[in-house]
Amino acid sequence: MKKYLLMMTLALLGGVTQVKATDYIVAGDATVVNGSDSWSNTKAENKMIEVNSNQFYLIVENCELVAGANYAFKVVPNGSWSPTYPSGNYDFTVNKDGTYTIIYTFYYNADDDYTVNVVPVLNLTLSNNYNGADIWDIYNSAAVFSHVAGTNKWTLDLPASATTTDYWYFRIFKDGLLTWNSNEGKNKIIPNTNDQELTIGGNADANTWIGTDTRSWKVPYLAYPYDHYTITAEYNIAERYANNWKVSVNAYISKTVSGTYHYATLGAPTATPLDLSGLAAKGIVAYTAEANTSTKKVTLTEKTTNLAGGEGVLLYNASNDDVVLSIPVAAAGDASASNDLKTFSGTGNLMQETGYTRYILANEGGDTGFYKVNTTTGNAMGANTAYLEVTGEVASRSFLWEGETTSISAIHNAHEANGQFFNLAGQRIAQPTKGLYIVNGKKVIIK
What we know:
This protein is mainly beta. The chain contains one helix and 31 strands. The strands form seven sheets. The chain has a nine-stranded mixed β-sheet with strand order 16-19-17-18-27-24-23-26-21, with no helix packed on it. Strands 1-8-7-4-3 form a five-stranded antiparallel β-sheet, with no helix packed on it.
């Protein structure tokens, strides 16, 4: 009888108890293992990775499999053909032609107490609200997850919608099967209208492995202030009977920091903290800003922890190239002790507010700083930006910065400083050009 084998579990009994080997190899047909050597018991590329003291896994990518063809493998101690798990071959088939990622898992306690699993994944496909449309139309949609190379995860990036009144729906069927029909369309995520809501950014349900029971979720379409969000489907490789998956969702905000003007502001949406940990890898530094009405300058303090909802930061790009950021929503924010940068949470123009004086990031006469918002018309602001807000009616037309970064008014004299110039990696720069440098222990911007 033809087998439909998204998840195939083999628990075999028998044999004499033996001490666990140090390493295990997946040996099998060349089509379903790494490398061109068929049935090698020493191939390093097919060595299983130990998850814990009894659980091992191996991921083999780009396997061209044919529907109905028989494929075979077994798990063996490195360099040995005795014992093998199982004692014969583990045979499996798939029901659709395609390029598969195969996940092997192996649990070993003793020769009479072990489990071998194989999961051939063709693709994962997302559907939105199921309204009676033909299921095969949904299966052939463009919303296909991408496999994260070398991992047990698949991700899908989706743009935000113009409305929050609808939902994306996800279902994971029992035994880990992501499928609508037992005979077709393996590895799909499909919709269901009677589901509990999954919080953006993940919650307890998002992090629960779904196995023996049918389980599904709904996630609201994202609108302003989000740009896009990523859905991750992850297969469990850490348990003996690893026939389960989990789905998690995280929202992101896109931000471009100019290589010409070098600065941009970022505002965390109200009650929605942002994760700033990925900025450094992109060469971006984030600063909070505290205004001093006496000196008419702001003190910048580097911000490396999560940005609390409603707070803003100034982003600095030392390079001459635009840097595009994808900033994820964080589980929790770290409120800054002193930060006068606020998130612009509206649309259209930012207006002055009674009892406060507001300033926006701008460049005037070659000087970048915070300049007073027009008292009559206000000033246009983009999504997820920030402005400087000072308590009281302040006469100052602008606030430049000092402290962590030297005042822009002093930048033009930077070349005459006695100290040497160093970049942020600590390398001495003999002929500094435009960018951010360390001079006499202070950060200096050359424009």
